[in-house]
Design a protein that fits this description.
Elements: H1 2-9, H2 13-39, H3 44-54, H4 62-72, H5 76-101, H6 105-128, H7 132-165
Helix pairs in contact: 1-7, 2-5, 5-6, 6-7
Length: 179
Amino acid sequence: MGHDTEVIKRRSPTLDAIITMKMGKGILFLVLALGFYALSDNNLEWEYSYLLHAMHVDGSRKFFVDLAANIANISEKNVLLVAGVTLIYGSLSLVEGIGLILRLTWAAWLAIAESGFLIPVELWEVFRRFSVTLLAILIINVIIVAYLVVNRNRLFRHHLHSKKDAVPSGAAGTTPAGS
């Protein structure tokens, strides 16, 4: 029983960093979803022009003119769809983070699956149009997946076994099942 107690109390700075990233990403995406939802019934062309004016940006450059044309083609339905998908993804990241805080095994597998799913996409993007940012994101996701896969038993196993394997008080001399 002493060994299980040590595992429960052991800190894991790498897991704490993963949790912080997941929670931060979840909060960011929820805020973005709320922003998309708030903009869904607005005149996006006017909002874009106002933003450029407020930032003192010359909107007559080709890049900004092309962006304005693309913004003009965005419908309220599309903005609501993006808001919904962003809300779901942000909620998933928060659930992952909370599950990792509680050291629930399913949360580790969810984090492994989510990060692992993105690796081929990120790899493709790095080869298609290399950037240091894309490479950094790819490396971070590979590290997250590798760390959680390699350390999943040490980090999460105790929640499944420590309570049911514990020796009841007054039962000295008995051994937990499976030992």
